[in-house]
What we know:
Pfam families: Aldedh (PF00171)
Bound molecules: nicotinamide-adenine-dinucleotide, 2,5-dioxopentanoic acid
Keywords: Oxidoreductase
Structural class: alpha/beta
Radius of gyration: 23 Å
CATH class of the largest domain: Alpha Beta
Family: Belongs to the aldehyde dehydrogenase family.
CATH superfamily of the largest domain: Aldehyde Dehydrogenase, Chain A, domain 1
GO molecular function, one term: oxidoreductase activity, acting on the aldehyde or oxo group of donors, NAD or NADP as acceptor
Protein name: Aldehyde dehydrogenase (NAD+)
Amino acid sequence: MTTKTNQTNQYVNFINGEWVSAVNEEKIVNYNPANNEEVVGEVANSSEEDLNKAVRSAKTAAKGWKGRSGAERGQYLYKVADIMESRLEEIAECMTREMGKTYPEAKGETARGVAILRYYAGEGMRAVGDVIPSTDSDALMFTTRVPLGVVGVITPWNFPVAIPIWKSAPALIYGNSVVLKPATEGAVTCAKVIECFAEAGLPKGVVNMVTGPGSVIGQAIAEHPDIHGITFTGSNQVGKQIGHEALARGAKYQLEMGGKNPVIVTEDADLDLAVDATISGGLKSTGQKCTATSRVILLDGIYDKFKERLLEKVKEISVGNGMRDGSWMGPCVSERQLENVLYYIQKGEEEGGQLLAGGKQLKDDGREKGYFVEPTVFENVNSEMTIAQEEIFGPVLALMKVDSLEEALDLANDVEYGLSASIFTTNIQQMLSFIKDMDAGLVRINAESAGVELQAPFGGMKQSSSHSREQGQAAKEFFTSIKTVFVK
Ligand SMILES: NC(=O)c1ccc[n+]([C@@H]2O[C@H](COP(=O)([O-])OP(=O)(O)OC[C@H]3O[C@@H](n4cnc5c(N)ncnc54)[C@H](O)[C@@H]3O)[C@@H](O)[C@H]2O)c1
Ligand SMILES: O=CCCC(=O)C(=O)O
């Protein structure tokens, strides 16, 4: 297979099947967060006019795309998957250079993108409705599903391949056209994904990408009368705003937002497993996952032993450029994100938390020009403290001691979020209590809080989502409307 790669990483918008500059010709240059002097690439700094062009093209394309069979739409997605697979290393390298995630993690994410494409490609051949017995014995009653029309996709930077794909692929397979606006910090990587769609030859206008500031392009998506569905992943503040705007004009919306995810470790747990999972769940991707472990709730009897083993392993973590062999943890995505993490660390100390490890920016050993921070562990943290309540989105763990599982669950639930949670225990009753009483959309037993499987529904409770779910079969609920048909 021949694939076209853009070696210079200079991208513009993708509208109506063509790469086009923003009307104002302005550009945004992205730098490597591991070395802020290294240019990674550039994207268009678009205006509302560009977004309007993309929506017009998506609107025109929607009718023809909807008219194709699911199997035919699926064939395009299989093709995109094959192209992306052939470019996996190039895309992963770009991701590492653009947003800092280590190269092995970036390769894993890109492979996941390929798998998501194939999963939804297969959906084109699966059932979409039910036959329901009518009270009229001469009638046939059934449900079918129809696409929403044009879908606006607004995505964050922390999974610049997987999230745009887990939203766009189901939107497309169920017959919608897409206008995607990726977060600027991952936009060059996302443009490479769009390049794979372009090369697969989807009909023009079916997939469009417009880059630029969220306050301009994201806002215009939220307000555009011809966008019938908005799927958003990002912060609570922005999500809520989009939800209000979508509701006001009657558009369907789906918001996937932040988390403040706990791990509970009970006295009968396999401690080595729990320590490894706490480190992986809390610190991989520099803690920049919505599912990252943030609060570590430990039963009194194992507190000291767990703490000792955790600190031993945290000290071994190697922080550096994600492209370097041996770097386990990369930089924060941006200077702003680094400052945010340092702010929370300071706040944690001011409010009485005790620093056990880390806490500082790393500026030595080739890390002078990057946004590196030490993996950080606090103890003496209680639920009233800011670091126990607010999403940090950085490599910071807060240890909290409790006397019983009941107390652990109360503490775990004592936040506004409810995205993911995990418990380490060998006791089946404790597992069952956790499954029943933990207020989170994803609960994991003897496994880290992060780790989403593409074939299962994903989403949060409480303030973590608009109570919708995405991925797996759940995507069908958002990207289609049910039509009940009565035939006589
Ligand atoms: N629940 C999940 O599945 C999930 C997954 C990944 C990330 N997240 C969350 O995302 C956040 C980090 O990502 P982020 O910093 O990119 O979030 P963000 O809310 O700042 O940005 C998300 C997207 O919204 C756009 N945006 C910004 N302002 C906007 C506006 N006024 N109107 C419309 N769009 C606007 C951004 O440009 C970006 O594309 C964290 O809170 C994290 O928990 C959640
Ligand atoms: O950042 C949110 C997505 C988390 C995820 O995909 C995972 O934990 O695997």
